[in-house]
Design a protein that fits this description.
By secondary structure, this protein is mainly alpha-helical. The chain is 69% helix and 0% strand. The chain starts with 13 loop residues before the first helix and ends with a helix. It holds the Pfam family TPR_4.
């Protein structure tokens, strides 16, 4: 999938970073979608952002950039522009857009939430948490903000606190696919792929499940070595060429991980022999 191939860039989508974390056997931070793994919406009638090719992202970014330049205080345009910039790997520029919008709309919950995600995509987790928490109101709690806060906590290794928030969000919005997807990706970060698949499969069956949810499911299935099944899932969202390319990439990354493991094992034997 298009998203899997962007794992190395700072601020890329949450699922892409999760792939890098799992493959490289590290439980440090990540950069997606996402933080956000649920829907980030569309830029208008047509293809969803998360299924766009690199060329389509650049074209959409250029179009939204012109609209943003004409009216930088327009909330919808700025948030869409920031989302596309993040998707295309321009996390720093995305943060600059959201910071300016947050100054213009200092009490807008949607803006603060998007600003928090942009901060987290740049590795600024404490300010991100502050922004998301400021957007939340205890008397009228927002499940989206709970899920966003949980995703940020997951990236700082606070998985228990994150999962409590996901479950609170599900109490407010039962079976919400984006929250179930975030919960599933929390288990990916822990390396528990079977539990992750259970939540992601449930998320993908829900009405309103978007492309990102199913792409995350394909990722987790592929990480378990079921490449043909992962490609079938991926092909529902992407072109056959994109799906094949990403499964091939996943195979190579897993093979590389195995090769490094073998080399480390050999080094260990040599050290013991000496």
């Amino acid at each position: 999938m298009h998203i899997w191939r962007n794992h190395a860039a700072t601020g890329r989508r949450f699922a892409a970073a999760a792939l890098a974390i799992v493959v490289m056997a590290s439980l440090s931070g990540c950069g997606t979608d996402k933080i956000k793994t649920g829907s980030i919406g569309r830029t208008g009638p047509g293809k969803a952002i998360e299924t766009m090719s690199t060329g389509e992202l650049r074209s959409t970014s250029a179009r939204l950039g012109k609209a943003y330049a004409a009216n930088p205080d327009d909330k919808a345009t700025a948030i869409q522009f920031a989302s596309v910039l993040q998707m295309d790997g321009n996390a720093g520029q995305s943060l600059a857009v959201m910071r300016k919008l947050a100054i213009a709309h200092p009490k807008d919950r949607q803006v603060l939430a998007a600003y928090g995600k942009a901060l987290a995509a740049n590795g600024q987790f404490e300010p991100a948490l502050d922004a998301v928490r400021r957007a939340q109101t205890p008397e009228y709690p927002d499940w989206r903000l709970m899920s966003a806060e949980g995703a940020i906590l997951d990236q700082t290794g606070q998985k228990d606190e994150a999962r409590q928030l996901y479950r609170k969000a599900l109490d407010l919005k039962p079976d919400e696919p984006s929250v179930l997807s975030n919960l599933g990706m929390s288990y990916v970060l822990e390396g528990d792929l079977r539990t992750a698949e259970t939540f992601l499969a449930s998320a993908s069956r829900q009405p309103g499940a978007d492309s990102r949810v199913r792409q995350n499911l394909a990722l987790v299935v592929g990480l378990q070595g079921r490449f043909d099944e992962a490609e079938r899932i991926a092909s529902q969202e992407l072109s056959p060429e994109q799906a094949r390319a990403n499964i091939a990439y996943l195979r190579s990354m897993l093979a590389q991980q195995n090769a490094w493991s073998q080399l480390k094992a050999q080094d260990g034997k040599k050290s013991a022999a000496n």
